[in-house]
Amino acid sequence: MGIKGLTALLAEHAPKAFHEHEIKTLFGRKVAIDASMSIYQFLIAVRQKDGELLTNDAGETTSHLMGFFYRTIRMVENGIKPAYVFDGKPPELKSGVLSKRFEKREEAKEEGEEAKETGTTEDMDRFSRRTVKVTREHNEECRKLLGLMGIPFVVAPSEAEAQCAELARGGKVYAAGSEDMDTLTFGAPILLRHLTFSEARKTPISAINLEKALEGLEMDMSQFIDLCILLGCDYLEPIKGIGPKTALKLIREHGTLAEVLKHLREKVAEKEEAADEGKKRKGGVQIPEDWPCEAAKELFKKPDVTPANELELEWKSPDIDGLVDFLVREKGFNEERVRKGAEKLTKFLNAKQQGRLDGFFTATAKPKTSPAKKDKAEEKGKGKGTKRKADDKKDAGGSKKTKKK
Amino acid sequence: MLEAKLSEAAILKRLLDAVKELVSDANFECNEEAITLQAMDNSHVALVAVKLEASGFKRYRCDRAIPLGVNLGSLTKVLKCAKDDDILTLKATDDADILSLTYEAKSTYTDRIAEYEMKLMDIDADTLGIPDTEYDASVTLPSAEFSRIVRDLSLLGESVRIEVSKEGIRFVSDGEAANGNILLRQSAEAAPKKGSSGVRIEMNQAVTLTFSLKYLVNFSKSSTLSKKVQLMMSNDVPLLVSYEFNQGHIRYYLAPKIGDD
What we know:
The complex is a heterodimer of chains A (405) and B (261).
Chain A: H1 6-13, E1 18-21, E2 30-34, H2 35-45, H3 63-77, E3 81-86, H4 95-118, H5 121-130, H6 136-149, E4 153-155, H7 160-169, E5 175-177, H8 182-185, E6 190-193, E7 205-209, H9 210-217, H10 221-231, H11 244-254, H12 257-278, H13 293-301, H14 320-330, H15 335-350, E8 353-354, E9 362-363, H16 369-383, E10 399-402
Parallel strand pairs in A: 2-3, 2-5, 3-4, 5-6
Antiparallel strand pairs in A: 1-7, 6-7
Helix pairs in contact in A: 2-3, 3-6, 3-15, 4-5, 10-11, 10-13, 11-12, 14-15
Chain B: E1 2-6, H1 9-19, E2 25-30, E3 34-40, E4 46-53, E5 59-62, E6 66-71, H2 72-80, E7 87-92, E8 98-104, E9 113-119, E10 121-124, E11 128-129, E12 137-142, H3 143-154, E13 159-164, E14 169-174, E15 179-184, E16 200-203, E17 207-212, H4 213-219, E18 228-233, E19 239-245, E20 248-254, E21 257-258
Helix pairs in contact in B: 1-2, 3-4
């Protein structure tokens, strides 16, 4: 899923794009969350001690509902207003990847059967997690639950990440919440990761700023999309023999993907000639025969989404009786806990929100003293090499380092 | 280089107590005229701005503007070693790697000179431009009274509604179990003078705003610096809480709580 190696690449070349937040500093923000991925996450992560999925008395899975209910409440408690986006039809290009995933799942299933006979419980656990599949029922139940909770959701015409990005771009929400890096490729200005993680893990929320990422990579959006395709996305087979480093180098050297491909094809041809002569094995770069990169690029640039201004996100009071009916009677949840959760939802959705100063005061370029300081730092850097510049590898806004003397 | 001599260490100690709850690291910007500090809390809800005028120091010299990046926790520790009435001298060289603090005891019994040095940091923070705002309402009240009000109300609820009207200034808090409100009327004097200790209200129009008490309680720690506090408000803009003292001022800005849009 997502873009191969993009996180690492950004961490190396555009560290300023990353920013870690505690969940409580995100209050008042509206966030569009990729629901389909969240369901996966919950089915995989929300488990009993023995690694089995949570079920009700009738044996129906409830892991996903558990996840949606409590983690949504956690966000709401922290003042975040979540909206969920569900996947629609996958784009045709994705069928290749999807069938591969299906194969893998089948494989895991078989291995799982085998493990059941021979392996340890640990093995079994691992395989059962790999065989997770989100069904239509899961999706429908989650939508029903969100409706009862008063949380808005959108069913995307196609990819959920793309719709999240559209909502963020259109200003309907502050950021897109997903683990998938291709949300950035779809043009989400800010991507929040780890938003739906369990509280117990205490993972800080990592925010990735697209603009800063582009700045760090020294690219425009079109080149960034090219880079993502070259790195390996959901729609195309990756080119064998090109890793993140080579990909970045190639795009930087040649500017566009088309040029890169031309260059690669030439090189491959050269190599083939050489191989014929020297009877060496053909190695290195292999471009798949059928590689519709233009189509993939088009998909990233103009994904099939509902325009943000046609969507209204509305947070309503939860239907407490409805929730009890659904979660307690049908799905066997503890009534007291459900009622408590619903109470929290009511309380926080109606509470007054703390405002921020950002809207009132704007950052001035840099204080007057700064240029002097910068000169000095440079002088020093050359002279004695003692002090590194603040801007060198810092996140904006308050990171620091003790000076060495 | 910077060399600044304060006749009493207490000022800096109190300033730090008033700032360190809000931010952990900040730049003291030093130039010819003053030492200033501006910092915003992590969640960008409150901003603190401090100014120490050069004229407020016993001796002050700063040849070129230098930022001193300070970890406020560390500075607090170093300042703990000073007595309130010690004469305090701050020194830093132009490369601003180290801040040195000298405390000279005033006591006649011992001739004590203590020297401390602390490491400085590079802090990369944006400075915010604060527009000059004409506020609709300005209320001056004794700082101890303000501290008591926010402390009392913070026991009841999370936020306080401040209403300024012809009647006076009213602080209202609705908690889950209890609620309360405190009204301060304009002091009886016909035209209260600036120096008087009562409550003085100037307003163009009635203002009602809601704020988080947690932050106000933090701000009220500055009451050790000044006997009076000024609250400046306009609808839908941040509150300005200002404490003026001999050497300068400390000002806090707090974003209001906003209703559902």
